[in-house]
Amino acid sequence: MAHQSTHVLEGINLSCIRDDRILFENLNFKLPAGQALLLEGKNGSGKTSLLRILCGFREADEGQVHWCGVAFDDFQYHADMAYVGHLDGVKKELTVLENLKVSLALGTPGAYSIPQALAKVQLSGYDDALVQTLSAGQKRRLSLARLLITNNILWILDEPFTSLDKQGIALIETLMTEHCANGGMIVLTSHHDIALPDVSVQHIHLS
Ligand SMILES: Nc1ncnc2c1ncn2[C@@H]1O[C@H](COP(=O)(O)OP(=O)(O)OP(=O)(O)O)[C@@H](O)[C@H]1O
């Protein structure tokens, strides 16, 4: 299903202060549909802090985040956005299938059915496995399957390549390329090189 292509995420004069230390200030960006924004910088430079501001988990010390031209404190922004953080966002006491059913119940259906998404991330046959029995890379693949079964224009991904093998990294690069080609947009952090030759990628380097 192709997304509408009129969406835009804007950071306007964003500042973040932690323990009296300025992580970033007067940060501006404008991310239209179809593009990716890669946050780079050394450990502790503020990448996750910026992602958490973009998710609405914490407020910027200065500045605003706009979604489609307006401040994003509304239900629609959170319906349009999906976040995959360090903890994968899956419940370890539930099975693979149960986790995906919960995600689907909380969102609107995306381009992939649950079996199709499991096949795409190579977890077919793991439907009834408890998440706590999965490897770290398999948990990460499950978190990626969540992105496929629900319809979220904006993906916010914190270190999405963590724990993935080479094939898993290639898979997520393919998924990100497809998402942007369909009018989606992505904000991500990564310490790894990423290969998205067909995607327009903006870079912000935090220092
Ligand atoms: N909840 C918090 N309370 C106080 N300080 C925090 C909190 N979370 C993060 N920090 C501090 O903010 C700074 C930036 O942390 P952040 O996690 O945003 O960095 P990062 O660029 O994502 O790092 P990494 O590459 O290691 O993941 C660090 O100095 C960290 O100690």
Q: Can you walk through the features of this model?
A:
- GO terms for molecular function: ATP binding; ATP hydrolysis activity; transmembrane transporter activity.
- It comes from Crenothrix polyspora.
- This is Heme exporter subunit ATP-binding component of ABC superfamily.
- Keywords: ATP-binding, Cytochrome c-type biogenesis, Membrane, Nucleotide-binding, Translocase, Transport.
- With 207 residues, this protein is α/β, with parallel strands linked by helices.
- The chain has a domain of 140 residues: P-loop containing nucleotide triphosphate hydrolases (Rossmann fold).
- It is 30% helix and 29% strand.
- The chain is built from six helices and nine strands, in the order E-E-E-H-E-E-H-E-H-H-H-E-H-E-E.
- A five-stranded parallel β-sheet has the order 6-7-8-3-9, with helices on both faces. The protein has a four-stranded antiparallel β-sheet with strand order 2-1-4-5, covered by helices on one side.
- Helix 3 runs parallel beside helix 5 and helix 4 crosses helix 5.
- It is globular, with a radius of gyration of 17 Å.
- It starts with 7 loop residues before the first strand and ends with a strand.
- Adenosine-5'-triphosphate binds next to helix 1.
